[in-house]
Amino acid sequence: MKAILSLILLTLMVAYGNDDRPPIPYDYLSKPQVQRFIRTMHKQYGFSEAYLKRVLEHAKLDRDTLARYTGKFKKNSTVGSWERFKLHVVNKETFQEAKRFKHTHYHTLKQASYRYHVDMDYIVGFIGVESRFGTYTGDYNVLDALTTLAFHHNRMQRFFKSELKHLFLFAREKQYDITKLEGSFAGAMGCVQQVPSVARKFNYDFDGDGASVWDIEDCIGSIAKFMHTKGWREGKIVAVPATFPTSKGERFKGLRVGFKTRYKLTTLRKHGIRPLSLYPYSTAALIRLRNRTHDELWLGAPNFKALTAYNASSNYGMAIHLIADAIKDQR
Q: Which residues pair with 218 in a beta bridge?
């Protein structure tokens, strides 16, 4: 689950990395592996071969998407540096939007928080990072993106072939026109950016009008449920800033960093690392944020690990945390 969810990337930042090459027609039906895919989907899942051929004949080659997974796309276009997060996500404009979103959807957020024992501000943070509070859910044709990645060589081709299978199943279950679905370059859809396999597994009807990955209330409930299943501790600390021995402008060195690390506080103190506010746990993840001129260190609590279960990135988790922290006293 974690490995799959870590692939759900920030479509908000995708808008700033597109190389502006539109998808082009491509003869997928001439490829033997496509013919094998058609036979498998027919035999295992009962799809009409005529339908499968008609859909895949419609699919185009998305060169932009393919470049991101073949090493030809520019650095940091699929994985956000902290500077990119600050530029596009963690800023005053986002904090203001987060406050408005919380006010507008307060009743639903309160319901979800109560039902799943999670902090509503972090639900807001998730939706802010994933889709700019539901306003940007991706403008890539999902069929084109996943067909391209499933049938052209790239470093994650096996994964994307599986996601193409789930896209067909998802569209059939929801009675969607598979050729019209839009999302990220990786095939993630909706206000919390779920790839088809995840959308099928965590499809959640929170407001009683049918589950939809594009419905804000369903997305609020889905994130709350996810946080609960990943061990979120309501009202507990997520992360605190820390000091470390350095002169101005120096980078942090000496210990491995990242959300997967786990150090005893006694070990961190031996290296001159100390929390700047109350940190009630005996161990912590050591999180480094690389700014242009300096590094920031943070101590990550168990709740921080829950954030990174949705996307395996320290920058991602810290972006959610800072948005949530900015609105914690707002209603």
A: none
Active-site entry in 130, 163, 182, 217: 130
Cβ neighbours, 10 Å, residue 111: 18
Contact 166, 142 (CB under 8 A): no
Look up the pTM and report it: 0.86
Rounded Cα distance, 145 and 223, in Å: 25
Q: Which residues of the chain have pLDDT under 50?
A: 1-18, 73-78
HSE-up of residue 71 (Cα within 13 Å, Cβ side) = 3
Left, alpha or beta for 96 (phi > 0: left; psi -120 to 50: alpha)? alpha
Assigned token pair, 276: 């700047």
Residue whose pair of structure tokens reads 């449920």 in the numeric block: 225
Which residues lie closer than 8 Å to 24 by C-beta, 6 or more apart? 60, 61, 63
| Owner of token pair 């350095």 | 246
**SS3 per-residue string spanning 149-180:** HHHCCCCCHHHHHHHHHHHHHHHHHHCCCCCC
For the question of residue 57 being annotated catalytic, the response is no
pLDDT in the model for residue 15:
36
Domains and CATH numbers, the chain: 2-77+137-201 (1.10.8.350), 82-134+211-229 (1.10.530.10), 239-300 (no CATH)
> How many angstroms separate the Cα of 316 from the Cα of each of 9, 91, 136, 277, 283?
9, 14, 17, 22, 21
Residues 6+ apart with CB under 8 A from 31: 151
